[in-house]
Amino acid sequence: NVNEIRSGFTAIKANIQARDPIRTVSILSHPHSLHKIKSSDKCCIIHQLFNFYMDRVFKHCTTEDSYINRKISSIANSFLSIKRKLVQCHNQNDCKCGQESMEKFKQILTNYEGLNVTSAAIKSLGELDILLDWMEKSR
Amino acid sequence: ILDEDALLPAPQNISIISTNMKHFLTWSPVTIQGETVRYSVEFQGEYEREYANESWIPICECSLITATVCNITEDISATVPYNLRVRADVGARRSEWGTLKGFFNRITTYLTPPLMKIVADGYHLLVELEDMGPAFQFCILYWKKGQESRMQQKMVKEISSTLHLDTMEAGTDYCVKAQTYVEAINRSSNFSQMQCVRAQGDRS
Q1: Which spans in chain A are helix H?
Q2: Which cysteines in this chain are paired by disulphide bridges (chain A) (predicted)?
Q3: For a Cys staple, B203 with which of A59, B10, B46, B171, CB 3.0–4.6 Å?
């Protein structure tokens, strides 16, 4: 599924990032990179980030371009498919979020809420490869 | 056959044909005397149902088409249940949506055994497999004829033209069979028919 998400994202990455005029702000990487998150917290943070994308990002990314919308649907449905598995993993493994990691996730929400919804959603979608790279590195 | 003023009926007998992760939506034609009927297809994934107000997404390659089949492979790209629907248009007249009975999940796709060709190139046992797309991996089993208990296995993630399986003993028969594996749905096909070849030279 992650490969499918990545190929879906690669197909629309340039288009989505071109819609994001704000170059000086990052949602996922400011002020600290995801790679700073402790490995023991990764299960929980991935779970939180998937919920973030499902609840607050994809639905605000509808465009006038049918092809883009279809690819976003593909990505969102793949996210949902993985989210289903994460919930099982989350329940079985008691993924606890450490204090430090929760601060990091709250910072992501703060970054998101610092922009208007559409800009924040488009920027978050444009940064999907940051999340995918971090997830794949964690595998 | 319907006359011009009757209500345009929705397409019927809507079904999916899905083989080897290629998915096609088909339906019965709506027939109107002397008119060209066109059809449009939309899909709805689980995400749209649960997070996006049950919205539907049009498939532009299947908007106002005259064919009664639509390739939905590109859009069925997650292992979740999908809804699909079709409607008919004749001029300014438009039918209600005809909706696929039940969901479609790609996990139910029919997986056929791979086409396979084995070659004895001197003492080298080679196999050629059809390229079935990026979603497919292959599990290849090979053994000396009569020694099924000492079967060897090779997993192939990416297809290259020809794959070297083993270096054979002179004059010995080797057999091979293969199955596909699709990681995205965690399913395998049945095994292909066994094929056997003999290495060159005489048995020692």
Answers
A1: 2-18, 42-52, 66-93, 99-113, 117-126, 128-138
A2: 43-95, 44-97
A3: B171
Nearest residue to B32 (alpha-carbon basis) of B4, B13, B10: B4
Is A77 in Cβ contact with B47 (below 8 Å)? yes
Q: Return the closest-CA partner of residue A11 out of A131, A129, A123.
A: A129
Edge-to-edge order in the sheet of strand B22-26: B15-19, B22-26, B69-71
Distance of alpha carbon B90 from alpha carbon A134, whole angstroms: 51
What is the token pair recorded at A53? 């994308």
Could A1 and B80 be called an inter-chain contact, meaning their C-beta atoms sit closer than 8 Å? Answer: no
User: Each residue of B15-43: pLDDT tens digit?
Assistant: 999 999 999 999 999 999 899 999 999 99
CA distance B46 to B188: 25
Q: Give CA–CA dist A35/B143, Å, rounded.
A: 46
Separation in Å, CA of A64 to nearest CA in chain B: 12
Q: Does the model's ipTM exceed the 0.85 cut? A: yes
CA–CA separation, B111 and B182 (whole Å)? 9
This prediction has a pTM of 0.89
User: Rounded to the nearest 5°, which phi and psi values hold at A100?
Assistant: -60, -40
Rounded to a whole number, what is the distance in Å from the CA of A70 to chain B's nearest CA?
7
Residues of A with CB under 8 A from a CB of B: 1, 3-4, 7-8, 54-55, 58-59, 66-67, 69-70, 73-74, 76-81
The structure tokens listed for A89 are 């993993």
